[in-house]
Amino acid sequence: MGIEWLPSEGIEATEELMDIITCDESVAVLAGAGAGKTELLAQKANYLFSTDKCSWPKRILSLTFKTEAQINIKSRINKRCGLKATRFDSFTFHAFCKSIVDRFKNALPENERPAINYDIVFHKREANGIDKILMDSLLLLAIKILHIRLDIRNAFSYSYDYVFVDEFQDTTDKQYELLKLLFQNTDTKLLTVGDINQSIMLWAGARKTVFTDFQNDFLASNKILVKNYRASKEIQDVLDIVLEHVKDPSHLINELLEQSKNCSIHIFQDEYQEASFIVDNIKAALAAGVSEQDICILTKQHSSDYTEIVRAELTKAGIHNLDMSDLQDALKEPLGQLFSIFLKVLLCPTPKDMTELFSINLALNKVELGDNKEEELTTSIVNFISLKREELTINTGVDDLICYMQSFIQFLGSAKIKGRWKQYKSPEYYNFIWKNLELHLRNMCNQTQSLEIAVELFNAEKSVQIMNIHKCKGLEYNSVYFIGLEDQAFWDYKKNPFENNCAIYVALSRAKESLNVTYTKRRKHRKYDNRPSTYKNTRVVIDLLVKKCKFNAINHTLT
What we know:
The protein is α/β, with parallel strands linked by helices. It has helices spanning 15-22, 37-50, 67-81, 93-104, 137-148, 150-159, 173-183, 210-217, 233-247, 271-287, 303-306, 308-316, 328-332, 334-347, 351-364, 374-391, 398-412, 414-420, 427-447, 451-458, 497-508, 539-548; strands spanning 27-31, 59-64, 88-92, 119-121, 132-134, 160-165, 189-194, 221-225, 263-270, 295-299, 321-323, 464-468, 477-483, 511-522, 552-555.
């Protein structure tokens, strides 16, 4: 008799969800914005482990594109699967390829074999193929190893009953080749999840036909997960219309019946007028109880250029703001998480933060809860934090915090950190992340006299978030300001309408309650083209929002 299984809390057991979870074959899932893709993967893993569809010692492999996504999925799996989560291996594609190279590099010809303690570099000019390996070369080396050795390929299909691939629409040709080499024509089943309407990585080599190829190459079924758990009904209706436009701009049937209450598009004379409106609007939102970190200002690209003036005005108004475009990846790195948790327990500790710190220390020392070493480890870290807190004085500055952070890393054990997170075996990569985090902390300390507030700012708490579209996937905010719906920002719209429409869809789908889109006639940063902004190409999108989605169109140049 089989085990009756139902999803745990956190997701509605709809018919479409249960159909995906219980499907016992390879599946391509096309999911809409806010449909709960990460939670779907966690529930699927829970189902496979609980029903012994993935029985011991078989495992589940998860592959993602970003470290942030890898951490989010692993965290959700731990929450849903308990002790069985130890059989869930979560990697980014780069980390997975590095693990193949590290374990099996001796399969390569000697003249192509990386050195034992090679470093990862990020620029081709720095790579030598021996002790300096280009990050992007890890994938090529892994593929070469798998081509050479059938037994290594088989080891993966024998180990993994199921493979999850998130954001599948961003898969490149070489990444897809890796999946085929390992799992095509094997008993391993693949669950790929993504949104073809969020294909905004085509510029980086994403495979345009990846879903169709997957269905053919792996005999995968195609399933849909569309319910949006994030946005208000008003914004869901808007997104449905925009989605129609993404799929087929020439064939739009539906339009909303009522004028939108919380969605609007604004035309400004210049960035100062734009900034004034945004700041006043954000002030009103904060007064109504919306928190700073639940507000986002999005740009198509070059967020620092497009938001220079509005950021200055926000700062004048005493509203903290943070450009996340370059910081997001560093903050989501394990090293960034260590920075964050240490600063919080040092300056503004909570029981939750201390518990998280204890868990990290236990994991680094490979000690389980209840082990007789747990008390000793917990006591030692409490004593360490207490000693550092005693050193804090009114004159403690950012240089002291950096020194405390370095001693914290030494206390935890740099070798243990590098053993747990393999990417830090590269001194260059470790130093790259450290320098970004240190610079960020220095910048935040320069903004305030309070170390406690600086720590909040460091963690992007109580700050309006600013970023470009490529950094916002998977995030959500109460209020979104999408600035610069202009030809100059979407300069290649005619050449790549699908990709640009996808980018616009992603931006709009970050909002839960309120959505403001802006068009500004003149922008200061366009030094070499001082002509007014145009909307010859983006007019189709503006018309879509105003005529079909019933956005309120407000021309501020007339006031």
